[in-house]
Amino acid sequence: MKKNASFMFYFDSSSEAVLVAVSLSPELKQKIPKTNVELSRSKNVLSLKIKSEDVSSLRAACNSYLRWIATAINVKKLV
């Protein structure tokens, strides 16, 4: 049975959403075993959908992507 997780991130501007989406693009090219990750953007909203074969793979993918998004946001604040 597939496991799913969905996250939506609301940014102050579409340029911030684009910045985070672009910073995640290299990670999207590297596949996490047993998972399928979709990232989409509509104006200032970033949507992350993760599907996995098991809970442990889902948890690992969620932790990775949420940490990468938080890092991108924090770096943007510093610059």
Give the termini separation.
Answer: 43 Å
Instruction: Determine the CATH topology.
Output: TATA-Binding Protein
Measured by DSSP, the beta-strand proportion falls in 25-35%
Strand order of the largest sheet: 1-3-2
CATH architecture: 2-Layer Sandwich
- Total helices: the number is 2
Kindly state the number of beta strands: 3
Mean pLDDT: 93
Radius of gyration: 13 Å
According to CATH, the homologous superfamily is Alpha-D-phosphohexomutase, C-terminal domain
SSE arrangement:
Layout: E1 3-10, H1 14-29, E2 35-42, E3 45-52, H2 55-78
Helix pairs in contact: 1-2
Written description of the protein model:
The protein has 79 residues and is of the alpha+beta class. It has a single domain, classed as Alpha-D-phosphohexomutase, C-terminal domain (TATA-Binding Protein, 2-Layer Sandwich), CATH 3.30.310. It is built from two helices and three strands; from the N terminus they run E-H-E-E-H. It has helices at residues 14-29, 55-78; strands at residues 3-10, 35-42, 45-52. Strand 2 (35-42) and strand 3 (45-52) form a beta hairpin. The longest helix has 24 residues, at 55-78. The protein is elongated, with a radius of gyration of 13 Å.
